[in-house]
């Protein structure tokens, strides 16, 4: 198991700058965790988790209002690192987030206490954490820009094209409810938009999936 952990951590820029003791601590304390689709990975009512390195699947980070309304901040895929699950050790983070497994996921988790200790002792680990935080805030700003400046049709189309590009497929296996959560809209509004796009021949709708038929037309809508 330690060989697998080391293989994962060696790909990170801080690894070669850690001391032998720090490496041994990370290999001993880090754990590989599996989450099922829909599982809550981190929330404001749970203790600080730590740094989460996604090995398989997709995770969604979102804000949850007192009324239960969700606003997706960003999603993370294989190769990404989620640092907001370690928000308790990042003084610049002053808000609570929720993180869930959108699909079945496998992740390497470095516990928050160990992460804080190594970051205090090693500037490379500390720098890595804040660089990852900056990346995530860039994602948040992009999501806000879309919500403020794009029409609902443009937001739906932008999501479909982005998802198709990242998955390498013209078929998106996702419900209207899931898309609505991700782009911050109501399911009914998303369904109406998708039906209109299907009527225009840009997409085809099947149960639980959306097939992009005319990407050129979709790009023109943006």
Write down the overall mean pLDDT.
89
Main pleated-sheet profile: 4 strands, antiparallel
End-to-end C-alpha gap: 47 Å
> How large, in whole angstroms, is the Cα Rg?
19 Å
Structural class: alpha+beta
What's the SSE pattern?
Answer: HHEEEEEEEEHHHEHHEEH
Which CATH class of the largest domain?
A: Mainly Beta
User: How many distinct beta strands?
Assistant: 11
The CATH superfamily of the largest domain is identified as Jelly Rolls
Q: What's the CATH topology label of the largest domain?
A: Jelly Rolls
Query: Helix fraction?
Result: 40-55%
Question: Which regions are unreliable across 5 or more consecutive residues at pLDDT < 50?
Answer: none
Number of helices: 8
Label the CATH architecture of the largest domain.
Sandwich
* Total tally of structural domains: 2
User: Order of strands in the sheet with the most strands?
Assistant: 1-8-3-6
The coarse silhouette is: elongated
- Strand percentage lies at 15-25%
Pfam family, one: HTH_Crp_2
GO molecular function, one term: DNA-binding transcription factor activity
Protein name: Crp/Fnr family transcriptional regulator
Organism: Blautia argi
Question: What would your notes on this structure say?
Answer:
By secondary structure, the protein is of the alpha+beta class. The chain folds into 2 domains: 2-144, Jelly Rolls (Sandwich), CATH 2.60.120; 150-221, Arc Repressor Mutant, subunit A. Helix content is 45%, strand content 23%. The chain has helices at 2-9, 20-29, 112-121, 123-149, 152-167, 176-183, 187-199, 215-221, and strands at 31-35, 40-42, 50-56, 59-64, 70-76, 81-82, 98-101, 105-111, 171-172, 203-206, 209-212. A 4-stranded antiparallel sheet has the order 1-8-3-6. It has a 4-stranded antiparallel sheet with strand order 2-7-4-5. The longest helix is centred in the middle third of the chain and has 27 residues, at 123-149. The radius of gyration is 19 Å and the shape is elongated. The mean pLDDT is 89. One of its GO terms (cellular component) is cytosol. GO terms for molecular function: DNA binding; DNA-binding transcription factor activity. Keywords: DNA-binding, Transcription, Transcription regulation. This is Crp/Fnr family transcriptional regulator. InterPro entries: cNMP-bd_dom, cNMP-bd_dom_sf, Env_Response_Regulators, HTH_CRP, RmlC-like_jellyroll, WH-like_DNA-bd_sf, WH_DNA-bd_sf.
């Amino acid at each position: 198991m330690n060989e697998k952990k080391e293989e994962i951590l060696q790909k990170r820029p801080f690894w070669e700058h850690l001391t032998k003791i720090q490496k041994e601590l990370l290999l001993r304390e880090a754990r590989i965790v599996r989450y099922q689709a829909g599982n809550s990975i981190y929330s404001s009512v749970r203790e600080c988790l730590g740094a989460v390195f996604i090995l398989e699947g997709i995770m969604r980070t979102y804000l949850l209002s007192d009324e239960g309304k969700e606003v997706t901040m960003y999603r993370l895929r294989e190769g990404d690192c989620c640092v907001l699950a370690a928000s308790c050790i990042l003084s610049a983070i002053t808000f609570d987030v929720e993180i869930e497994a959108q699909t079945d996921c496998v992740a390497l988790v470095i516990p928050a206490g160990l992460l804080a200790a190594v970051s205090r002792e090693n500037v490379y680990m500390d720098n890595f954490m804040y660089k990852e935080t900056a990346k995530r805030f860039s994602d948040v700003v992009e999501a806000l820009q879309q919500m403020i400046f794009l029409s609902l049709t443009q937001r739906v189309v932008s999501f479909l094209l982005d998802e198709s590009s990242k998955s390498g497929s013209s078929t998106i296996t996702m419900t209207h409810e899931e898309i609505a959560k991700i782009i911050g809209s109501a399911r009914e509004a998303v369904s109406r938009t998708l039906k209109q796009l299907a009527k225009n021949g840009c997409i085809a709708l099947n149960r639980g999936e959306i097939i992009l038929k005319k990407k050129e037309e979709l790009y023109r809508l943006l």
